[in-house]
Design goal:
Layout: H1 3-18, H2 29-38, H3 44-57, H4 62-65, H5 70-77, H6 83-101, H7 113-121, H8 128-137, H9 148-157, H10 165-175, H11 181-194, H12 213-222
Helix pairs in contact: 1-11, 2-3, 2-8, 5-6, 7-8, 9-11
């Protein structure tokens, strides 16, 4: 089975296990950007809590956050971790969104993909993952955001080794149909969190273990236990 066919079967199996209605708890494009910053290096539970705390204390608009100091934001987002860095980043990003786009990120998602990605990554504090999450979930662009879970899963599956963001993103985008990229992103994250854990992965019960280089080897070594 070639790489593309194997990935197709992996996504089919993961869809059976993880497919669900998308979580639309945030619909405003700027708020999605702020929520994505809060989600860096923490769990969904903590980032959702931090966003709710922040939304309860201030109006999450670029003109409001740009007028604040990082220490004004920090108490609300402590539960997401790295509060010093994230509060500074939120203020800086808000100022740049206001200055570059007059606070209106719909201007970005009217651009071609490469231009939109470049415009976002020109903003200090927005890296490739944050840009790609925004482009995928707000703009509907065919991109594959890559997080820690996806790096680990894709490495073990044998599609891309190491933690080079562009290499892993490119490999996945070449193997997965554009219309399935956003859902595949969510499925691979779910697999990484629930089954393909950093320590003690649950290879014997993993739905894609027969298609995974690492899983096949681990089951061989342990006899399926």
């Amino acid at each position: 089975m070639n790489y593309k066919a194997r990935m197709g079967e992996i996504i089919r199996r993961l869809e059976q296990k993880y497919a669900k209605n998308p979580d639309r708890w945030i619909s405003d494009s700027f708020q999605v950007l702020i929520a994505t910053i809060l989600s860096q290096n923490t769990s969904d539970r903590n980032s959702h809590r931090a966003f709710s705390n922040l939304r309860g204390s201030v109006n999450i608009r670029p003109e409001v956050l740009a007028s604040l100091k990082p220490e004004d934001i920090k108490p609300a987002i402590m539960c997401a971790g790295l509060a010093n860095i994230k509060s500074q980043r939120i203020v800086e990003v808000s100022k740049e969104v206001l200055a570059r786009f007059d606070g209106d990120l719909s201007r970005v998602i009217r651009l071609p993909l490469n231009e939109a990605r470049g415009a976002l990554m020109d903003i200090k504090g927005i890296g490739p993952k944050t840009a790609d999450v925004f482009l995928s979930f707000v703009g509907g662009y065919p991109v594959m955001p890559v997080d820690t879970n996806i790096f680990r899963v894709v490495d073990r599956l044998g599609f891309a080794k190491g933690r080079n963001y562009e290499r892993t993103r490119g490999a996945l985008e070449s193997l997965i149909p554009p219309e399935k990229l956003r859902d595949a992103h969510l499925y691979l994250i779910s697999l990484g969190r629930e089954m393909c854990k950093s320590r003690k992965p649950l290879c014997p019960t993993c739905p894609v273990n027969t298609l995974c280089d690492y899983g096949i080897e681990q089951i061989r070594k342990t006899g399926g236990k």
